[in-house]
Design goal:
Blueprint: H1 3-11, E1 22-26, E2 29-32, H2 37-48, E3 60-62, H3 73-89, E4 93-94, H4 126-132, E5 141-144, E6 158-161, H5 164-173, E7 175-179, E8 182-189, H6 198-209, E9 217-222, H7 231-239, E10 248-251, H8 255-268, E11 287-292, E12 299-301, E13 309-311, E14 322-326, H9 327-330, H10 333-343, E15 351-355, H11 359-367, E16 369-370, E17 373-374, H12 375-381, E18 385-386, E19 411-414, E20 430-433, H13 436-445
Parallel strand pairs: 2-3, 2-5, 3-4, 5-6, 8-9, 8-11, 9-10, 14-15, 14-19, 15-18, 19-20
Antiparallel strand pairs: 1-7, 12-13, 16-17
Helix pairs in contact: 2-5, 6-7, 10-13
This protein binds iron/sulfur cluster.
Iron/sulfur cluster is lined by residues 66, 125-127, 146, 148, 327-328, 392, 395-396, 417.
Length: 456
């Protein structure tokens, strides 16, 4: 069995499963957020009754993150609905934007978009917050009402996005009927060259198979090249499996996974035990792709979908209006460090927005010093508009007052993960997906630029 099949077999209490089998699996964690949470709760109450209780309150994680720092009252109301539900159900894992359980968040114009407008428990973007807060464990089943839930495959677990109806059912029963996906095999060898990042790996893979090339399939990443990839790198790659239509992505378990998960579970007091899965000899794959990481170059997915692969060096003629770094995919600490490394002692020449994925990342950047300056200050000095309000922000457009949202037709280079028309706001805008390094170099020149031109 493949890694995915082994996890699904265990969760279904079967000795073996194969691609195409339909199995009932037990969920270890159900995650929802402010966009899909109210709908999920509605389905749960409709099907299980107004007084129903969730199947296991320690396994439901609720993370408001999408439409948060906006004056839009309907978006604010969504978070209120989550808060009411958490109180009613006594759920311990709710990462609220405010500290007062009876309160109501309101936009503070005196702080504006840049200054912190959240309380002590707010966790930021769900997929980045889940591992930070100790909710991702090897060998487990994580179901989330968000397509990029597949990001947690970086931790050797089966993680996938589900709809509100399925999530309402899981909320009541802890179970879900799943078809076992076929597995595509990506064997990574070698080491990335300077200026080339994990984002380039996944953009390369999606370019190989197209934006629907992995529809309802698992993407298994292994090989000697994985050892050189950080946990953040693996998260970036797993996150974008869905951009090829993948059901899930999965990495092997190793010492890096163990160190990260053990540390985070201990830090947060979450369940510390887990059982990873290892590779079998009899794995059967539907597709094989070997990639020599040392041969990859800075890569871009052009408008209008993540499969439109080109090399950054081929796109110097594309003039840009905006650059954006953020999201679960591209807003991690390591992403901002690579971004700042290119921008240090330089200036951007187009509007450039920076949105860390979580408050912890804001803290990292504001306390990491390079010589006598914090990384945060280096970015401000370079002309980047950095917000402390960690969250999804303009990654998916959002209400019209969302920080960094594209409100007019324009060309934007972005470290986010999705570029279908209208994704970041205006339907006639064009979004080019790239690594944080390529976004930084392009922000300096105002055209798509290979970051290797700026390596010192
Ligand atoms: S940052 Fe973007 S991709 Fe990630 S969860 Fe938020 S909207 Fe989705």
């Amino acid at each position: 069995m493949t890694l995915t099949e082994k996890i699904l077999a265990r969760a279904a209490a079967r000795s073996r499963v194969q691609a195409g089998d339909n199995v009932w699996v037990k969920a270890d964690v159900l995650m929802t957020h402010d966009v899909c949470g109210p709908g999920t709760i509605g389905v749960f109450k409709r099907e299980f009754g107004r007084d129903a209780r969730v199947w296991d309150k320690t396994k439901v994680v609720i993370i408001p993150d999408h439409y948060i720092f906006t004056a839009d009252s309907k978006s604010n109301r969504n978070v209120d609905l989550l808060r009411d539900f958490v109180k009613e159900q006594h759920l311990p894992y709710f990462y609220d934007i405010i500290d007062d359980p009876d309160g109501h968040w309101v936009f503070d114009p005196s702080k504006g978009m840049l200054k912190r407008q959240y309380g002590s428990r707010y966790a930021g973007v769900c997929h980045t917050a889940l591992p930070e807060k100790g909710h991702t464990r090897p060998g487990e089943i994580l179901l989330g009402t968000d397509s990029h839930t597949c990001m947690a495959g970086a931790f050797n677990e089966f993680a996938t996005g589900i709809g509100n109806t399925d999530a309402g059912f899981v909320m009541g029963t802890g179970k879900l009927l799943l078809k076992v996906p076929e597995t595509m095999h990506f064997r990574l060898e070698g080491k990335l060259q300077p200026g080339v990042m994990a984002k380039d790996i996944i953009l390369h893979c999606i370019g190989e198979i197209g934006f629907d090339g992995a529809t309802y399939r698992a993407l298994q990443f292994d090989g000697t090249g994985v050892a050189g990839l950080s946990i953040d790198d693996r998260m970036t790659i797993a996150n974008m499996a869905i951009e090829a239509g993948g059901k899930n992505a999965i990495f092997e378990f190793d010492a890096k996974t163990q160190a990260f998960v053990d540390y985070r579970c201990k830090l947060n007091g979450t369940k510390p035990t887990y059982e990873p899965v290892e590779r079998d000899r009899d794995e059967q794959f539907i597709y094989e792709c070997g990639i020599d990481l040392s041969r990859l170059e800075p890569t871009v997915a052009c408008h209008p979908d993540p499969g439109q692969r080109k090399l950054a060096k081929e796109l110097g003629h594309v003039k840009l209006d905006r650059a954006y770094i953020g999201s679960c995919t591209g807003g991690k600490t390591s992403d901002f460090l690579e971004f700042a490394n290119i921008l240090r002692d330089r200036r951007v020449c187009i509007d450039t927005y920076g949105v860390p994925a979580t408050p912890e990342i804001v803290h990292d950047l504001q306390t990491a010093y390079w010589d006598d300056k914090t990384v945060w200050q280096i970015l401000l000095d370079a002309g980047v508009q950095m917000t402390e309000n960690a969250g999804c922000a303009a990654c998916l457009g959002g209400p019209v007052d969302t920080f960094g949202r594209i409100n007019t037709p324009m060309k934007c280079i972005s470290a986010t993960n999705r570029n279908f028309p209208g994704r970041m706001g205006h339907k006639e805008s064009q979004v080019f997906l790239a690594s944080p390094a390529t976004v930084a170099a392009s922000a300096i020149t105002g055209r798509i630029t290979d970051p290797r031109e700026y390596l010192s």
